Amino acid sequence: MKAQLLEYTLRLGDNALILGQRLGEWCGHGPILEQDIALSNIALDQLGQARMLMQYAAEQKGGDFTEDKVAFLRPETEYHNCLLVELENGDWGRTIVRQFLFDTYNYFFYSALLSSADNRLQEIAQKAIKEITYHAQWSAEWLIRLGDGTEESHQRVQRSLNDLWEWTGELFSMDAVDEALLAEGIAVNLAEIKVQWDQKVNEILSLATLKRPEDAWMQSGGKQGEHSEYLGYVLAVMQHLPRMYPEATW
Amino acid sequence: MTETIWNILKNVADPEIPVLTVVDMGVVREVEVEDQKIIVSITPTYSGCPAMNEIESNIRWALEEEGYNKVEIKTLISPPWTTDWMTDEGKAKLQEYGIAPPEGSSADKSVLFGEAKKVMCPRCKSRNTTMVSQFGSTACKALYKCEDCKEPFDYFKCL
Predict the structure, then answer these.
(1) Which of B49, B81, B113 is the last residue in one of the domains?
(2) A110 near A129, Cβ under 8 Å?
């Protein structure tokens, strides 16, 4: 149970850390100042949530592990984030689609995590859900704006939606870690989240005049440490400084 | 004893909004004294708030200056910080400073795909205002503009 809880904590922490890192790439490149700031704020929230989870993971690992070691010094195969969050940002529309698909999932996930039997995860969820509520609202509003916007914006987000769809299946697939912790009342039942996610996604896609892609082959493996070719590049940038200058401080 | 400590903390400014103290913000949750050691518990506003380290050092310095050298600072995440903990005095100071204070309690869930909240302009007091962006100059603020006096302003959003 201990090993499973650690892996579960890392999965949540890595989702937040890698998405935060990806969104950070937009800093200084957003289409307008206000939205550049919005995305940087969301990235910062993700990083803050990652820190709470990495601190918890470091405590579980024990010894001289610290949140920084957990965050920065693992090899690629030891990251447990879902594949969706490591994908390239692409254009603004693609970033919005990825954010919307993930935020909506994250919102229902953390709402359910509020009743986790693990005290610490419950506390982290209480803190995180307030922030995630703002994120989910922001990305849904942007998806509607772009989908129901110009012909160009509509086409681009529809294309991104079609491209990203195959990366959403993994969000809801339960493996042995999920099952074992669900039995203890610690983990979230992803089948229940799927129902809520479907309903919200359909509602927003319809407002955005976008067509929901057909479910077909779904990618998976991120949770178990098998990643797409994109994660290596994210880690190269993220880990460069702490690996080159291990004692660096602000 | 703890009252003396609280009074010292009432003079420690928030690094992001220097017109407020860490006590006005509701960031200081508890002060305990054990033997000769002072334990101050603080809580972050947003989980990624970059000011937390600075708040911690500022508290340490303020206490050291008054001769308290054995200080421990604990960070609590539960119960999570809420704008409801901001003191009325703090809200009044924010308003005077030009930042619209949080209105109502807890997260602004009503704006979820609905009409954004009509916040009062801190300059001309008009409620004819529009939200420009839910995310402003810091994680805790949204960006608004006043349609009457035309001034942009920050709104400290509810959390």
Answers:
(1) B81
(2) yes
Domain final position from B32, B50, B81? B81
The residues with which B136 forms a beta bridge, in sequence order, are none
User: Which residues of B lie closer than 8 Å to A, measured between beta carbons?
Assistant: 44, 46-50, 77-81, 107, 109, 111-113, 132-139, 143, 157, 159
pLDDT digits (tens, 9 = 90+) for A92-111: 999 999 999 999 999 999 99
Domain span holding position B96: 85-156
Q: What is the percentage of chain B residues whose pLDDT exceeds 70?
A: 92
CB contacts < 8 A, A to B, total 74
Residue A4 identity (one-letter amino acid): Q
Burial A119-132 (b: 16+ CB within 10 A, else e): ebbebbbbbbbbbb
Give B-chain residues touching A124 at CB under 8 angstroms: 77
Contact residues on chain A for B136, CB-CB shorter than 8 A: 37
* Interface predicted TM-score of the whole assembly (ipTM), two decimals: 0.85
Full set of structural domains in chain A with CATH: 2-244 (1.20.1260.10)
Q: Which residues contact A235 (CB under 8 A, 6 or more apart)?
A: A76, A79
Residues 6 or more apart in contact with residue A53 via CB below 8 angstroms: A9, A10, A12, A13, A16, A124
Closest CA to A47 of A65, A31, A76, A68: A68
